[in-house]
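The following record pairs a protein chain with its ligand, NAP.
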Amino acid sequence: MSTLPPSQAPVTVVGLGLMGQALAAAFLAKGHPTTVWNRSAGKSDELVANGATLADSVKSAVEASPLVVICVSDYDAVHGLLDPVGSSLASRTLVNLTTASSTQARETAQWAAKLDITYLDGAILALPQAIGSAEATLLYSGPKVAFEQHQATLQVLGEAATIYLDEDHGLSALYDMSVLSIMWGVLNSFLHAAALLETANVKATTFAELATTAINVTAEYASAYAQQIDEGEYPATDATVNVHVGGMTHLLEESQALGVNTELPRFFLELAKRAVADGDAENSYAALIKQFRKPAA
Ligand SMILES: NC(=O)c1ccc[n+]([C@@H]2O[C@H](COP(=O)([O-])OP(=O)(O)OC[C@H]3O[C@@H](n4cnc5c(N)ncnc54)[C@H](OP(=O)(O)O)[C@@H]3O)[C@@H](O)[C@H]2O)c1
């Protein structure tokens, strides 16, 4: 494979949506000969003006570089594009940065192995605007030797946080889903809280600073509770599940009384009550991990 200095290693980017364009632009900005392809015309114009080569087919795009990065809407699109050119990908490294589940990532790894394609699955924890900056985090899983071979090129996308996880191809997708779960959990709670305060004419912008403090304070629980989860012991050094149940009951009643959505507080309370029923009343909140480990009742 390529023995060129990292800044000259050629790379192909398939898919020029918002994210694909950002990926290709970052490679170009660091001097990588960059070949691009997109289903619809027009999205490569700026990249071509900045030195990218527009391939006339997916086949010629993947054949242009030893490293092929694909970032399209979903894995159906990935397979729709790449299945017909599998033999052209043989002995190349394919980095798939399309969002997916871990199952899809592992299945695609099996598909790639049958075709002798070196496969890395990746996840982008960043907006397109952050690609190529210190703010972008990108996760990779699959063969470590392949990651190390292309690390210098891939690092262009996430200057500070280009993270190799594991040989298990599914792990980057699983981390991605886990981080998204945190994001939506926090965002939904913030929006519920803002709706509560709105009933008293408190503007979201007024609340934002205290909300940020609350999010940061809650974040500090993560490492302490992580240790309890890993050890399987849940000493209530802060508050017991019972105490949380009391507070959650107030939150539900307040939401009901004010006529705002009660789904979130109802879910909180039901989950905590199940933990109490399972014998965790006097344990710390981390004991609720046992409820999350099993499918919903
Ligand atoms: N944008 C973000 O903030 C962000 C952040 C993290 C991860 N991601 C992930 O990055 C991936 C791409 O996101 P995006 O924001 O670039 O989306 P987007 O702007 O909607 O672009 C979608 C891309 O997929 C292509 N595509 C869709 N269906 C196709 C098909 N059947 N055959 C061929 N090409 C097809 C589109 O081609 P056309 O141009 O021809 O439609 C386009 O290049 C997604 O998996 C997304 O979850 C995005």
